From TrEMBL:
HAMAP family membership: IspE (MF_00061)
Any one Gene Ontology BP term: terpenoid biosynthetic process
Annotated SUPFAM superfamilies: GHMP Kinase, C-terminal domain, Ribosomal protein S5 domain 2-like
Top EC group: transferase
Phylogenetic placement of the source organism: Bacteria, Pseudomonadati, Pseudomonadota, Alphaproteobacteria, Rhodobacterales
Protein name: 4-diphosphocytidyl-2-C-methyl-D-erythritol kinase
Species name: Rhodovulum bhavnagarense
GO MF annotation terms: 4-(cytidine 5'-diphospho)-2-C-methyl-D-erythritol kinase activity; ATP binding
Similarity section: Belongs to the GHMP kinase family. IspE subfamily.
Amino acid sequence: MTIRVFAPAKINLTLHVTGQRPDGYHLLDSLVIFADAGDRLTFRPAADLSLTVTGPRAEGVPTDGRNLVLKAAALFEGEQGAAITLDKHLPAAAGIGGGSSDAAAALRGLSALWHQPLPDPDAVLSLGADVPVCLHPRAMRMRGVGEDILPGPVLPDRMGILLVNPGVEVSTPAVFKALSRKENPSMPHPPGWSSAAVMAHWLAEQRNDLEPPARRLAPVIREVLDAIAATEGCLLARMSGSGATCFGLYDSRAEAEAAARIIAPAAPHWWVQAASPYSTG
Ligand SMILES: C[C@](O)(CO)[C@H](O)COP(=O)(O)OP(=O)(O)OC[C@H]1O[C@@H](n2ccc(N)nc2=O)[C@H](O)[C@@H]1O
Ligand SMILES: Nc1ncnc2c1ncn2[C@@H]1O[C@H](COP(=O)(O)OP(=O)(O)OP(=O)(O)O)[C@@H](O)[C@H]1O
């Protein structure tokens, strides 16, 4: 028996930082979607627990207990075996929740393999603020420090996404620390949208409050945003999460693919990926 789980890239279409808790964690209000680009995990029965990391972005990803996949496994009752393979396609420490989405995929895969319920919500949150939302890979609104999640709006039938990462790892704590103003307005209720253009128009009124501090720490983010914004048909260019990955929105996947064909050859060291929204349905 082999269980396969896809771990899609997380995109913060908006990221409003609305306050800070006494323990230092920030209060967020974020519209999150997922892309059909991501990592692939397989789970097979085995006497011992093991993790093998393969794929084009495997380099530098820990294979020991620091990997969020093994941290997720440790939340289940008892010591059980599983042979886990993580086929890594997403850049790490990139603002698109690579590790968090892997952790969520591991929770789902091991819950099925071991016939156990998912760990309780506090334990899931202890893996990372993005892990609860990554357990529900569809349009979601995320609030609190990441634990308060509810279904988001229905996305337009057709839209294209471009993801671009300049290969600079940005530390999430460093970006939050560099944020000058912690109390910013929350996000209005996201309505549904009839098209990607109408959606982008609404999103343009919203913000990623982590973009200015991330740009100060990694000025190349400005170049990435400019490159995306200059492509034909780009409706919106913004940074995701704490960066440095930025996204572009387009009316169709074909337009996102055309934009990727312009940017990739001009910046061979950047990770450039066209995608569509991912949804488990
Ligand atoms: C920036 C986002 O990606 C937006 O979706 C998330 O808030 C971060 O999610 P994550 O990487 O899973 O975050 P964690 O691993 O839990 O936290 C990393 C660090 O980010 C900061 N952090 C994270 C989440 C939050 N709501 N407030 C914070 O201040 C803290 O310094 C924390 O030590
Ligand atoms: N499965 C994993 N994949 C990638 N990195 C991992 C994984 N498990 C642990 N890590 C470690 O976590 C660090 C952060 O990488 P990760 O991909 O989790 O960031 P991220 O979730 O993209 O950040 P953000 O919260 O900004 O979206 C990496 O530098 C790496 O050492």
